[in-house]
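Query structure, 190 tokens:
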């Protein structure tokens, strides 16, 4: 079964076509970035960096809490959290709107971890100098046989919780290292 049997794909707004405006009635949008995607995937806010913004009257594609977003740059997917609601997503991202036959967390798991899907992406990148995924590649993905929706939900939920736990462990290890190095500096200069 192809991914398009279960998912509707919406490409992001072409960034170079968005016209900036100085008019007061123009809306201001923040751009969704790879850092935002990684933050959504782990559920942990990364170091606060100022998001790129644009003020425009153009109709643009924006994100909602719970949307599934796929990065054509990294080839990874995530579920958008409320911190990134209303963010504008560019042509480097694709919004995946699922039907009731596939769990959003399970779809993120498949796109990020499934070997069959990884192999299909790799075959599409063979001979390519620029490692960027395409909407066409995504549209033509063949999915493995799917378990029952209840099992999908369990797998997706465990996967997302495991990513969060791993990120928390990594953050703790970095903080412990920083603390130890600080103590060493203090001991050295004492």
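Result returned for the query:
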């Amino acid at each position: 079964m192809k991914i398009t049997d279960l998912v509707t794909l919406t490409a992001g707004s072409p960034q170079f076509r968005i016209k900036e405006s100085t008019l007061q009635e123009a809306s201001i949008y923040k751009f969704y970035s790879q850092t935002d995607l990684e933050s959504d995937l782990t559920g942990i806010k990364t170091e606060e960096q100022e998001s790129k913004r644009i003020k425009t009257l153009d109709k643009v594609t924006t994100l909602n809490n719970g949307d599934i977003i796929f990065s054509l740059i990294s080839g990874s997917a995530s579920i958008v959290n409320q911190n990134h609601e209303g963010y504008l997503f560019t042509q480097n991202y694709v919004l995946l709107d699922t039907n009731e036959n596939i769990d959003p967390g399970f779809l993120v798991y498949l796109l990020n971890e499934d070997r069959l899907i990884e192999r299909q992406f790799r075959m599409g990148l063979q001979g390519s100098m620029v490692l960027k995924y395409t909407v066409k590649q995504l549209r033509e993905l063949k999915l493995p046989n799917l378990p029952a929706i209840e099992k999908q939900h369990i797998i997706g939920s465990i996967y997302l919780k495991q990513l969060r736990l791993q990120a928390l462990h990594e953050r703790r290890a970095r903080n412990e290292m920083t603390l130890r190095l600080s103590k060493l500096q203090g001991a050295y200069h004492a």
